[in-house]
Amino acid sequence: MRRRHVLMTCVTLPLLTVPAAAAQRQAASHDKISSAEVASEMADVRRFIEQLTIPYETFTLSNGLRVVVHEDHSVPKVHVNVTYDVGSKHEPAGRSGFAHLFEHLMFNGSENVPGEYMSYLNDVGGEVNGNTSSDRTQYFENVPAAALERALFMESDRMGRLLGALDQKTLDEQRGVVQNEKRNGAASRLSIMNYKVRTTLYPPGHPYHTSTIGSMADLNAADLDDVRSFFKEHYGPNNAVLVLAGDVDMPTARRLVTKYFGGIPAGPRNVRPVIVPTPMARTISETVTAPVDTATIVRAWPVAGYDQRDGYVLDAISEVWAGGADDPLSDSLVHKQKLFSRVSASNASAVQGGEFTVRGTLREGVDLAVAAAALDREIEKFLKTKVAPEAISRYVARFTYPYVKALDNATSRGALLAETMSTHRDPAAYKTDLRVYSSQTPDTIMATARKWLNQPRYELTITPGPRVIPKEDEGIDGSVPSAPAQIAKPVTAAPQVMAQRDRLPLPAVAPPGDAPFPPIERARLTNGIPVLYAQKKGVPFTNFNLNFKGDLTDAEDYLATTFMYDLLGSGSAGHSEEWLNRRKELLGIYAGGAIGVREGSILMNGPDVNIGDGFGMVRDMLVSPDFAAKPMNRMKIYNNDMTRRNRLDVSTLTEEALMPLFDPASPYNRINKSNTAAEINAVDRNRVSAAFKRWIRPEYASITVISDKPLAELMPMMEKAIGSWTVAGKAPAIPPIDYRPKPGAPVIVLIDLPGAVQANIVGRQVTSVDYNAPSEELDMANYVLGGGFGSRLNMNLREDKHWAYGASGSFESQRYGSHYSFSADVQQDKAGPAIAEVIKEIKAITSDHPITEKELVAIKGLALGATESSLSSREGIMYTLEDMRRHNFPDNYAAQTSARQRAVTLAGVNAALRTQLLPDRWVWAIVGNAAIIRPQLDALGIPVKVLKAEEIAPKP
């Protein structure tokens, strides 16, 4: 994972009070951004960076556990994060994937917390998860403040007393889950690319040679002694960082951490392996096949990691070259030469090394040699030129502003402190990192680019053909049994044993409280557009949604309507798309159109310092959209490329197969199907303009806005921008479609995809869910059946059978026909039995094994905690406001969410499922290798229809 993506998840910031750049903007010449404006905008960005502050305190226990505490009492929640200094780079030969395997084993109980670890915190409103990288493993919980002591008890118990609860059954279960997670990744049509790049740039014996998830052979070979030894060597308190962020003070943190972790003895101290990123000795060229339609060309170099300044500069290089709107690489190879459908440059850095990759997917019919030569010329050209200062400034702005926007809650701040403390041994390193980005110049950028990219490289060409499976992963598709590897036993480390003392019982937790919601305000612009507003303090940003009645099912010309919304942000008021994109990046503004099955919208968000410019962009979209030929042609090319590229994607095949069977006459079918090249190319400016005139009207409009600014400050800006906007004539009525679902007959469609690694299963049933009704009862009922990690469907197929990495089900509430949908990627030799288990679970929960009182109590706790977490974030508040506006819910709807959840009854949740789910009415689609799957289906007693993938999605 690139560290810059981690950075975009955390911090707090005082409001900027002097919009320097805004005050200095010049009209300048049309479609030209002056150097003075660029410099002024960069000054604003650098001030943002210097004002970033996360207050924290630290202490260290005598056993070496490092603790970071960040206080934020705005919401009664605490983020608990334990990061261990162990990742795949610490794994001995023959034991790849052990760090990630332990990420799973640590959630299966410890000596004093037996069984399903997550349930002890989920049931009281907590959220629990973990992740593993090549450098570290992280476990975290977001819990009500009342559950902090329980969370610390549990984290300390699995740090100090895990092995007594670790048995062969648990190992076998989680080994199976991990192997199905690996199948999920291997199912990607280009999965061979990551394998080839990694294993070539990092030769055997290099700490980064193996993948985090490990090989099938090593996972098969792991035994109980192996995993116990690995735990003893790496999971001591002196290899860990504990972060507490949120509603906790330092005295409480010190008392509880000492109480629960102080008695755990230190273990062996992990030492970072010595890794010195060095260029390859020579260029290596290779060609492999994969189940793709067109070739992909890859150029990759080993580069510095984030323990060096160059690791951050390489981020900037990839972004100024190929990361922003109208970037030079895409502009040349995609738009001008039209050789590739997409190209990218990326810097995937770990702590001690990285991979800089340039890749391109050929457009159909393009000669491979011609495309490869063109890509190489672009690389050579880039290394001989110098990037423009404006390009650097736009990159820094488009990175920093979203970074700041995400820093509005203690959870994200805690995650950042954990990452910087474990990576740099310094919680405040985030500011140093950002300063590196913002200090780049054309000279520093190009000096670093030439240092690392003017070197031998790995040249990989992937052409259409059979899937290549690495030797150590043989049998991953179920076609060949995989043989356990023979590996030498390591020297067993001394046992890690807790100091002998009585342990307290699992701490009790008070029920979750009511989720707070900011006061709602309403207003109306002069032209009658209603405004729904809530304030979210913390970071100086505004989110503005201008929504329009009418979704794609209402549009006669739905394809032109889609183009219209997509093109709204691509040029207006005579400004070119290129100029507008550059300006939005520089100002940190997003402004554009979007449409879904519910409605169309113009969305705008950005830092308050530039929000006036954002409102001006909205005004231009409403009054004078250009719908110019250049962006329209680009969109046609993009849509055609996407249709060709995705035609054999599992999701595309599933949707295309299910639509004519599940609800044959549904009005959603026409908008969900893949468009043909003829349909796409037939869209023109007249049709797009007609769609604009039909739908973009103030009579259809409503505004939802969330900001740290009070509504009184925003109203004058909105009035100035769109308060006087009117459209001549009377708005046509939008009559509802007279449609009642007519379900198709039960059937299984098996779509044959030879070379598939997994069986992708989707099942659907038409339901009578009311689109406008509050959903707490149905949501909680589905939490038990298929909506959460602990749901019956997921626990059955993942934890009990370990046939899948995950399985889920959900209700989809729609105006013209709701449905329930199940999905899972399962081992191909278990596809038929998996469907049988799903049918069994649905029959049981709607008849002789209904939801129990214990399950309902647990799910209520989970739902209450999830609501509290959601409503502490800007995105969660906006989602709730939109839900209220869309369904015309009263102003107290959000504030009463917790009360509605508590009022759900056992009789209510069981009745909700019984009235909706009928297991004999389902339609199923399976994508996978028919030779393996077909024999399994006869036992189900459901008609089976086998089709080739090309029959579902013929080649254009």
TrEMBL record:
Family: Belongs to the peptidase M16 family.
Domain Peptidase M16 N-terminal: 66-182
Descriptive protein name: Insulinase family protein
Keywords on record: Hydrolase, Metalloprotease, Protease, Signal, Zinc
UniProt-listed Pfam families: Peptidase_M16 (PF00675), Peptidase_M16_C (PF05193)
Organism: Sphingomonas mollis
Highest rank taxon of the organism: Bacteria
Keyword Zinc: yes
Span of the signal peptide: 1-22
Record's keyword annotation contains Signal: yes
The Peptidase M16 C-terminal domain, residue ranges: 223-397, 683-860
